[in-house]
Amino acid sequence: MEHPVIPPKTYLLVFAALLALLALTVGLAYIDLGFFNLIAALTIASVKALLVILYFMHVRYSSDLAKIFAAAGFLWLFLLLGLTLTDYISRGAVFPLPGF
Amino acid sequence: MTHRHHRVSHLPIPAHQFEDIEQEREANLLGMWVFLATEVLFFGGLFVAYAAYRRLYPAIFADASRHLDVVLASLNTAILLCSSLTMALAVHSVRVDKRNAMVFFLILTALLGSVFLGIKFTEYTHKFEAGLLPGANFRYEGPNPQVAALFFTFYYVMTGIHALHLLIGILLMGILAFFAWRGRYSSIRYMPVELSGLYWHFVDLVWIFLFPLLYLIDRA
């Protein structure tokens, strides 16, 4: 059976959560948390994204195959991002061995 | 003649290569997700490039970012989130055969997207007037204006391509609303609405990441 019809109330609850998270991310941006600002912003954005993907895009109610297809794009993105950042994050961290 | 080259019937008869309508809908859905995966990588490339340069020039990127208008962008974020809600409600409407509600929500979604674009246009205009368009007349007070110009290049390209995707989405909503009003979609034939919804939510997803990464770097 195709995925079920989701009641509007679910959508409204998700929307309320998304607005709350928006307020949170803007609010936190004005507090100095050092490096944690970036982590907080990315975490909140990821939670918002998950809510949109699971509920608005119906992935929560889709077949396992559809879930895999949905995840695949992001998997490759994380590979691209992660491996690229291994370069930039490690610059300056490795010192030449003595004798070189 | 039942040969289907323009299938607008409301009988759940799949196209000939499918065994049943469920399989056709699943195939449609998977195909859409493959397309969205290409879009994820498309925007993803820009995000990765941005991450690399922000890593290299954190202070200058933060300083340049403070020229952006958080109030307008926050409002825009809320508008897009709302448009995802109205899009989801449009999809719900077609699943329960509420044609008028579906048309209403599709038009509302397109309207909200248009408001977003209007605000974006205002933002861009303010930036141009402040001399923050990289090029011959770029004006930036501070050391390393070239790096600041790099930030603004990312800003314009990433939000600009996002805005282009949004514009395409708005046109798509208009077309959908027209066909919906003409009775083309129903609880039996709803995948075009569902798949267009996926595209719209994806555009919202991109903005969900663009907003904090561009606008909320170091506002404390």
Description:
Chain A is mostly helical. In chain A, 69% of the residues lie in helices and 0% in strands. Chain A is built from 3 helices and no strands. In chain A, helix 1 (8-29) packs antiparallel against helix 2. The N and C termini of chain A lie far apart (66 Å). The model of chain B is unreliable at 1-5 (pLDDT under 50). Chain B contains 6 helices and no strands.
Biggest sheet of chain A, in brief? Answer: none
Please give the oligomerization state of what you see.
heterodimer
Shape of chain B: elongated
DSSP summary: helix tally of chain A = 3
* SS content category of chain B: mainly alpha
Architecture blueprint of SSEs:
The complex is a heterodimer of chains A (about 100) and B (about 220).
Chain A: H1 8-29, H2 36-56, H3 64-89
Helix pairs in contact in A: 1-2
Chain B: H1 21-56, H2 58-65, H3 70-95, H4 99-129, H5 145-181, H6 191-215
Helix pairs in contact in B: 1-2, 1-6, 2-5, 3-4, 3-6, 4-5, 5-6
Give a quick rundown of the structure.
The complex is a heterodimer of chains A (100) and B (220). Chain A is built from three helices and no strands.
Can you give keywords for this protein?
heterodimer, A: 100 residues, mainly alpha, B: 220 residues, 74% helix, elongated, disordered N terminus
